[in-house]
Design brief:
Shape: globular
CATH superfamily of the largest domain: D-amino Acid Aminotransferase, subunit A, domain 2
CATH class of the largest domain: Alpha Beta
Largest sheet: 9 strands, mixed
Number of domains: 2
Order of helices and strands: EEEHEEEHHEEEHEEEEHEHEEEHE
Bound molecules: 2-OXO-4-methylpentanoic acid
Strand content: 25-35%
Number of strands: 18
């Protein structure tokens, strides 16, 4: 499909925030991408326009039935001023997988990638260069048909917005304390847990709030059926090092197939470190901590990359991992992934693309 992406440049560039103010997802660049869909025309009118609010009918289906999906990836500026994206093709594939689950029409992945590149190039002066910073890219789709009948929308918008970011967690790469959630669950197999859709994140807020009130940074999610198998940590995939083997919950229909997760597995395989994707029960972790074999744990995601876990709080027990500092393997993975993403290390895996 040949599409021409039109560009309308802003006449009023925004003042950019200081790098120390960035945080995560608080500031947005000068432009955004939009493309519309309706059942007669398919996807049409791909365009880059000045960043601005959009007018929505209050009856738009997304407000009522949550028919929406999103993605997240980052663009980096290297020391020699090249712009790199990390495995963006995987995001576009996953976007369409989520679209399929939410009954949203597929998007031409090549066009979406082209749109993303052109938008980043348009706003390239917004890519922060300090260590630990990047330009977070948020593609998303919303159902815009104004109708309260519960049926797939006949109209949609696909949009991409950009946000210069620093660390996702205030702790950065320092270990965080985690509450093992026993009341709420995030998702069940057959539901939408493996799609990147708003409802999964909304469903997690209550437990997150409870954990925050108790002084923990995140929750560890257990499965919704047996309430004993590990699923995710906060909004990230999770890994544990038990002696010299790394284990992570297998893809089971309720957890998100993270791109950082896949990257970590591939790196470990390349380093000849045994890595297993399988069911992991909370009892197994408690036992492993008691006998000293649970050495490290960390979350993986685009936003934080690697987030080490310092302690797990399960029922009345505090299971401390390591000695409060980032584990050796967590640090090695963090340095390898961020090094490749930033162009500091050679990308021997072909994961980055330059735009
Ligand atoms: C990620 O780790 O990239 C996430 O999914 C978090 C995002 C929702 C901010």
């Amino acid at each position: 499909m040949a599409h021409t992406i039109t560009i309308e440049y802003t006449t009023k560039k925004k003042q950019q925030p200081h790098v120390n103010q960035l945080g995560f997802g608080k500031y947005f660049t000068d432009h955004m991408f939009i493309m519309d869909y309706d059942t007669e025309k398919g996807w049409y009118d791909p365009r880059i326009v000045p960043y601005q609010p959009i007018l929505m009918d209050p009856a738009s289906k997304v407000f009522h039935y949550g028919q929406t999906v999103f993605e997240g990836l980052k663009a980096y500026k290297t020391a020699d001023e090249r712009i790199l994206l990390f495995r963006p093709d995987k995001n576009m594939k996953r976007l369409n997988k989520s679209n399929d689950r939410l009954s949203i029409p597929a998007i031409d992945e090549e066009l979406a990638l082209e749109a993303l590149k052109q938008l980043i190039l348009t706003d390239q002066d917004w890519i922060p260069e300090a260590v630990g910073t990047s330009l977070y890219v948020r593609p998303f789709v919303i159902a815009t048909e104004s109708c309260l009948g519960v049926a797939p929308s006949r109209q949609y918008k696909f949009m991409i917005i950009l946000s210069p970011v620093g660390s996702y967690y205030a702790e950065g790469i320092n270990p965080v304390s985690i509450h093992v959630e026993s009341e709420y669950v995030r998702a069940v197999a057959g539901g939408v847990g493996n799609a990147k859709t708003a409802g999964n994140y909304a469903a997690g807020l209550k437990a997150q709030e409870g954990a925050t009130d108790l002084g923990y940074a995140q929750v560890l999610w257990l499965d919704g059926v047996h309430r004993k198998y590990i699923e995710e940590v906060g909004s990230m995939n999770v890994f544990f090092r038990i002696n010299d083997t790394v284990v992570t919950p297998m893809i089971n229909g309720s957890i998100l197939e993270g791109i950082t997760r896949a990257t970590v597995i591939e790196l470990l395989q390349h380093w000849n470190i045994p890595v297993e994707e399988r069911r992991i029960s909370i009892e197994e972790l408690v036992e492993a901590q008691h006998n000293g074999s649970l050495k490290e744990a960390f979350g993986t995601g685009t936003a934080a990359v690697i987030s080490p876990i310092g302690s797990l709080h399960y029922q009345d027990e505090k299971l401390v991992l390591g000695d409060g500092i980032t584990g050796e393997l967590s640090k090695k993975i963090y340095d390898a992934v961020t090094g490749i993403q930033n162009g500091v290390l050679p990308d021997t895996y072909g994961w980055t693309i330059e735009i």
